[in-house]
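Our consortium's second objective concerns turning raw sequence data into structural hypotheses that experimental partners can test. To show how far this objective has progressed, the report includes one record in full. It was chosen at random from the queue rather than selected for favorable results. The single chain below, 247 residues long, was entered without modification.
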Amino acid sequence: MLVEYITSRPGQVDAAIKECPLALVPVGSLEWHGPHMPLGFDGLKAEHLLKRVGTALGRGVIFPTIYFGAYDVMAFPHTYAFKRKHLQDQLAAFTGQLVASGYRVVVMLTGHYPGSQVRFLEKLAIETMKRHPDVSMLAVPEYYLLTRSKQGGDHAAKLETSLGLSMFPQWVDMEQLPATDGSREALRPLGIGGEDPKAHATREKGDAWAQEVVDAIITGTERSLSEQSQAAFLEIYASFHRLALTR
């Protein structure tokens, strides 16, 4: 069975862990995402993708999105920044308690992904697996899982806007984007980092990329559960880094 932690009674969570010791943990931020995207997009994105994973698997426990604690955010209105130690300590403590609660496969998907946070999450996952050989942990941004399409991460640009158009078209308003020459210099004052979403973002691309992410997590999770091995998640990390070296 798939349950949501915040709406479940203790016995329901116990039963879910006994059936499948899988924890799905979305991580987001409270941050400007251009004039056209919702401020909570990072967390909405991660939660949506993990709920699709959980629904497809039909089992596991999905936790509430972690919004507070994001660091290295953009200096724009309605954006809330915290010291790195705040979120790092929170995630390290939470991971340790998940393991102590009986979870043996942990998938932590972060929609907010400055390099410092991505590196911390990968280190946390690797160190957790070294300390607990019976635990498999994947802690990544969605672009780590787009090795087939070779699509990198961005901020409110082609990738994220396409995902927004796919997942939450009711909350994305492309008309709020002013006309520009599409250069990165022109987009930066709008809080957009990457390719011009007005020219390059489409719902079709978002559909394909979201499915690629979901499929990769499902495949890795199913292998981790059936094999009781860390190999599948370690291979995801290795595949991403091999691709990164060729860019």
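The partners drew two points from this record. The chain has a mean pLDDT of 97. The beta strands are 2-4, 22-27, 60-62, 105-110, 136-141. Both points have been shared with the crystallography group to help prioritize constructs.
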